[in-house]
């Protein structure tokens, strides 16, 4: 998903550089592939981040947020055309957010890994100081561990 964001942004920025129709076709092919990669991985990512119960709501929010730049992009591109006399700036500015988003997303696993390491260190200290206590509602009814504590 990160790679598709970065490649999508680069391809957007390369559209003004095309001088032949065949080049536009190749760039549009890559744009479509990157869009397909993002769309197909969106649902599994939502399930992993928020769980199965809130995944449909998360996908809905994401689609709603994606609608804002898609709706506003056309008038902004027209404004750039009026100001600069061509659409080049619109394509360059359209490529920047996916590249920044991809770079930010590439850092997320590193931050997550650090948080897990810190959590492991903190949980190791906690286990030495306090016995295992089951918080009410932490276990599902009927599981063997919950019946052992009753």
TrEMBL record:
Q: Pfam families under this entry? A: MFS_1
Signal sequence range: 1-20
Q: Where in the cell is it found?
A: Membrane
Q: What is this protein called?
A: MOT8 protein
User: Where along the sequence do coiled-coil regions lie?
Assistant: none
SUPFAM superfamilies per record: MFS general substrate transporter (SSF103473)
Q: One MF term from GO for this chain?
A: thyroid hormone transmembrane transporter activity
Q: Look up keyword Oxidoreductase and say if it applies.
A: no
What is the scientific name of the source organism? Alectura lathami (Australian brush turkey)
Name a single GO cellular component. membrane
Q: Does the keyword Flavoprotein apply?
A: no
Q: How does it sit in the membrane?
A: Multi-pass membrane protein
Keywords attached to this Swiss-Prot or TrEMBL record, sorted alphabetically, are: Membrane, Signal, Transmembrane, Transmembrane helix
At the top level, the lineage of the source is Eukaryota
Q: Where are the transmembrane segments?
A: 23-47, 59-81, 87-111
